Amino acid sequence: MKSLDGCDVGCRRQAGFLRRAGWALAAVALLLLPAIPAHAQSFGQGISAFQRQDYVTASRSFIPLAERGNVAAQSYLGFLFETGRGVPQNYTEAAMWYRRAAEQGDPRAQYSLGLLYDRGFGVPQDIVEASKWLNLSAAASPPRVREARARIRDAVTTKMTRGEIAQARLRALEWAPSRER
């Protein structure tokens, strides 16, 4: 039986359900909403602290974000560990954070990881792996830094045999970025 507004009992039940579901979704959204800016705010606070040279505060902001897979936070954290700013200097830890960001396609982290492999800091010295990461970084870098990174890559290449160069290029060609989950 339809009422004056043209809606029967089933229609009213459905409308009531949709109204309640809408309120439930709104409540969930309100609960989740503060969490989204908190991550952005935390990263922003980390960058601000980094720029003020307050590296302890920067590292405290970056660590939880990096652990959750934030590429930029991982790259910054790699730098902090490599240079010992705000955290104890630890090349192994730097290499781990750079690798996590590099595997996700961050050209700065790829460049830094390549340099660590070239020098054998925090990782076994491996000229082929160094060249791979430096190749990837130069290819993905913005034009204003691409040339400088290509020069460093080329300097590393001068220490390599033709076979090593071919192997490094093949590794770079076979590489594909992978997102952390």
Molecular structure report:
The protein has 181 residues and is mainly alpha-helical. The chain folds into 2 domains: 13-93, no CATH class; 105-175, no CATH class. Helices cover 75% and strands 0% of the residues. The chain is built from 9 helices and no strands. Helix 2 (35-51) runs antiparallel to helix 3, helix 3 packs across helix 4 and helix 7 (127-140) packs across helix 9. The longest helix is centred in the N-terminal third of the chain and has 24 residues, at 9-32. The radius of gyration is 25 Å and the shape is elongated.
SSE order and pairing:
Blueprint: H1 9-32, H2 35-51, H3 55-67, H4 71-83, H5 91-103, H6 107-119, H7 127-140, H8 143-157, H9 162-174
Helix pairs in contact: 2-3, 3-4, 4-5, 5-6, 6-7, 7-8, 7-9
Approximately how much beta-strand content do the residues carry?
under 5%
Backbone CA Rg: 25 Å
Instruction: Name the shape in a single word.
Output: elongated
Measured as a percent range, the helix fraction is over 70%
**Average pLDDT for all residues:** 85
Overall structural class, as computed from helix and strand content, comes to mainly alpha
The parts where pLDDT drops under 50 for at least 5 residues are 15-37
Please write the string of helix (H) and strand (E) elements.
HHHHHHHHH
Largest sheet: none
Query: How many distinct helices?
Result: 9
* Termini Cα gap: 52 Å
